[in-house]
Amino acid sequence: MDIDKIRSEFPILARKLYNRPLVYLDNTATSQTPDIVVNEIVRDYTTTKANVHRGVHTLSQEATDLQETARVRIKEWINARSTSEVIFTRGTTESLNLVASSFGGMMLNEGDELILTVMEHHANIVPWQLLRDRIGFSIKVVTINHRGELDLDAYRSMFNERTKLVSVCHASNVLGTINPVKAMIAEAHSHGVPVVIDGAQATPHFRIDVQDLDADFYAFSAHKMYGPTGVGVLYGKEKWLEKMPPYQGGGEMIESVSFEKTTFAELPYKFEAGTPDFIGISALSKAIDFLQRTGIENIAAHEHKLLEYTTRRMLDEIPDVRIFGEASDKCAIISFLVGNIHHYDMGMLLDKLGVAVRTGHHCAQPLMTHFGMEGVARASFAVYNTFEECDAFLDALKRVTAILQ
Ligand code: PMP
Q: Which residues are in coiled coils (predicted)?
């Protein structure tokens, strides 16, 4: 892979921070966006902006075509059975709220049990809690070992006749751990229990085949996979989506409306109330073109080399460094603390040296509580990061450590 060429597709990477080249290591929060995606947004706003589905006029039909072509692209990319199973949302958060509210509301009753894990993002905790407070089921939590891997024996032993649903992240946004979701889904299915997968951290790094995984639902966000902000996807098996009540009501999701009774549109429109961000959706399909052209296996292999190089040098060269998450199967994410240095001070000073890392609880407070911490600093890598940037990060880390320790 020609990383320089790839970098040239991301103009933001040429930016300077405090007179230093920007070293962007906050890719887990959001990735940067290549020209092909930005150009699509500019082109669509410049030539094709019209509301989808409602119009007979040419622009409206073109806008509708853009959206529906993107739906086919995404269906093929994740290997869904049909475009009816691809629902556009505003992001993983909205996708998970949709599943919790609509599917969870249908499946869970008082006294039932839902299985989550301790490494979930708040987006895969809070929607379920809101529902629990209405319905009265209980939430069981799978814990992790010292390497940050799920305790699968504990997971298997949690199933009983009250278990109605499992929701788990494919990859952790803090530990980087890639969970064995295919096996976890098979286990749940052997008990007749459907599984929701939060794929926000998986889709930027590896190819998802929802049929091979046999996931009942799979949620992800465009902005973490080189796409635009404000767009996400919920994949759901048609057999469930058919049975589920709509999540939001409004235009586009109806067949007919009267004050006495409303009937709903067919899938997937039943779950897409209101004007969609069809331009963002079309731009997401360009992000998928980028992933495919670059080769997602090449991306993962490159990121993995950066991860191994940086992890090894941090452990060798930074005294008192602690890295959280040492799973054998791991995304390119390094969550860390050095001695007693506060993660916030660490992040602030790294920024002054041109290095963007994230600090705080990373929307995973239960995981922080598990480790007895309030927060950590996190460096995370994408395809356009280089070994020189890893060196710059390590040099900056040494300087910050020398100042603060
Ligand atoms: N789940 C995980 C694992 C995440 O990392 C994130 C984003 N940090 C989300 C869910 C929520 O994604 P979004 O903010 O794009 O809705």
A: none
